[in-house]
Design brief:
This protein has 289 residues and is an all-alpha fold. The protein contains 14 helices and no strands. The chain has one domain (71-287): MetI-like (MetI-like fold, Orthogonal Bundle), CATH 1.10.3720. The two termini are 45 Å apart.
Length: 289
């Protein structure tokens, strides 16, 4: 043990200590806001009023979470969020990957003009009113598909996957083509199974957007199709009004808002550790080009 500690101390230079200290500071600055929100969400009403500063958790209660899940609309909202995330992410990853692979092929005619069409929305938006009118004109208003189809292929994720597919070994594709595989066969049998890192990365990014989306679901669909983000905002507003009138259970608006944020964040925090290694590899591979 002594030899190992000496060898470790010899390898640990002043620069290493500075780097580790900086990374520890960055970790603390990034993790503490999440820790603060979690501690605030489980802090009892009396403890919140007793202390002027809430840097650390004081007490424990699940009152705010019980208040949140007491609403029946919220349970339906979480079902819609889950369905929207699963269906939307699956379709978006498939269509985005197919689009990116097609645009990465040099043999595709008008490949560059088509890429420019995807590049323009990254810098210039058509506006809220034209977007709303387009959804209404296509008959998607107040339907589940209004939450999925408009964002089926995102420009940013498409260009990341396009860069990854452009660096895919051309020899493998040529070998599959010689063996008789067509364009779809090469993509589904060769390219797709070997692109797990970039697919998992894009699935996480797209799934997070679907889970946290608020603005358009609040405008395009009715209460029965609204996801949890919209329902939680409505509950938060209602509870704040009740608290302001002095009715119902004793709640602090700050802790209730923290409980709402925690309810939305925890599913993402639970899934991310399983996809973290794919995210790092996928981002690196997708940005090499």
């Amino acid at each position: 043990m002594a030899r190992r500690s000496r060898s470790w101390s010899r390898r640990l230079t002043g620069g290493d200590i500075a780097i580790y200290s900086f990374l520890a500071l960055v970790f603390f600055a990034s993790a503490y806001p999440i820790f603060y929100v979690l501690s605030l969400a489980v802090m009892p009403y009396e403890d919140y009023l007793r202390h002027a500063i809430h840097a650390w958790p004081s007490g424990f209660t699940l009152t705010y979470f019980r208040e949140i899940f007491r609403d029946r609309l919220l349970l339906n909202g979480f079902k819609m969020s889950l369905l929207k995330t699963v269906v939307g992410t699956s379709l978006s990853v498939v269509f985005t990957a197919m689009t990116a692979y097609a645009l990465s092929r040099r043999q595709l005619r008008l490949g560059r003009p088509l890429s420019v069409l995807f590049l323009i929305p990254m810098f210039v938006s058509g506006g809220l009113i034209p977007y709303y009118l387009a959804i209404r004109a296509t008959g998607l208003m107040n339907t589940f598909w209004a939450l999925v189809i408009p964002g089926l292929v995102g420009p940013f994720t498409m260009f990341v996957m396009r860069a990854y597919f452009a660096a895919f070994p051309e020899e493998i594709i040529e070998a599959a083509t010689i063996d008789g595989a067509g364009a779809f066969g090469v993509f589904w049998r060769v390219v797709w199974p070997t692109s797990t890192p970039i697919i998992a990365t894009m699935a996480l990014l797209i799934g997070t957007d679907h889970w946290m989306e608020f603005f358009w679901p609040a405008l395009l669909v009715g209460p029965e199709l609204q996801p949890a983000t919209v329902v939680l905002q409505s509950i938060m507003s209602t509870r704040s009004v009740i608290q302001g009138l002095g009715l119902g259970v004793r709640l602090t608006p700050e802790s209730f808002i923290a409980a709402v944020a925690t309810t939305l964040i925890l599913p993402i925090l639970a899934v991310y550790p399983f996809l973290q290694r794919f995210v790092v590899r996928g981002i690196m591979l997708g940005s090499i080009k």
